[in-house]
Structure formats: C-alpha cells, structure tokens
Amino acid sequence: MDEQPGLSDEYRKASPWPVFVAFGLAIFEVGIVMALFPVAVGGLLLFVGSVVGILRESGYVADPWKGLVTASVICLAVGGAVALTTTNAVRLRGIAVLVGGLLVLLAGVFGSFWEPAAA
C-alpha cells in the first residue's frame, strides 16, 4: 500500500509561506492592539516578506527584490492614507505601516544592489 497516494515526486508537497503569512498578520495585529509599535512593524515585515516569497515561489515575480520594492510602494500608499485621514486611535496603524513600508523599501533597494551577478 502506498504511503502517499496521489502524490508524485515531481511536485512539492507543501509550502512554508502560508504559515508565515498568517503569523506575520497576527503579530502585526497584536502589536497594534497592545500598542507595541516595534512588534507591529516586525509583524508587517514578516507578512510582506512572506507574501513576496509566495509570489516568487509561484513564479509571479522573477526578482524578489523588485517584489519588495513594489510591496513597499503599496505599504507606503496605504499607510500614508491611513495616517493622514484618521484620528489618534487608528493613526498608530498607519504609522506602523509607513515605517514598515520604508524598511521594506530599504531592503528591496539594498538587496538588489548586493545580489551577486549571475554567472
């Protein structure tokens, strides 16, 4: 009897990224609810990095560094809109997204410069 019926050796069995997406989003929300700014920013970084990892693994993005830059532009736009149009209670969320977007932008730009050239 076959231990894994229906699975072929040519396909990957599981991807680790969905766990990190859920974990990053949960950490982000805990940081917002508990007013722990560094935890919120760290959760956003984990979330965005995992989403870009999923896109890279599935073949939608050829270069993960460009994916990070694109994700940072989205984070900066959403975070800026939330920070500018809300009051103090929700403004922390927008500022956390802005700071996370800036860090992701720095990672994407510097990562693309430090990537070794393909031989």
Structure description:
The chain is mainly α. It has one domain. It has 4 helices and no strands. The chain has helices at 17-33, 37-58, 64-85, 88-114. α2 packs antiparallel against α3 (64-85). The longest helix is centred in the C-terminal third of the chain and has 27 residues, at 88-114.
Number of domains: 1
Low-confidence runs: none
Q: Helicity level, as a percent range?
A: over 70%
Please report which band the strand proportion falls in: under 5%, 5-15%, 15-25%, 25-35%, 35-45% or over 45%. under 5%
- The whole-number mean of residue pLDDT values reads 87
CA(first)-CA(last) distance: 46 Å
Concise account of the structure shown:
74% of the residues lie in helices and 0% in strands.
Keywords:
119 residues, mainly alpha, 4 helices, 74% helix
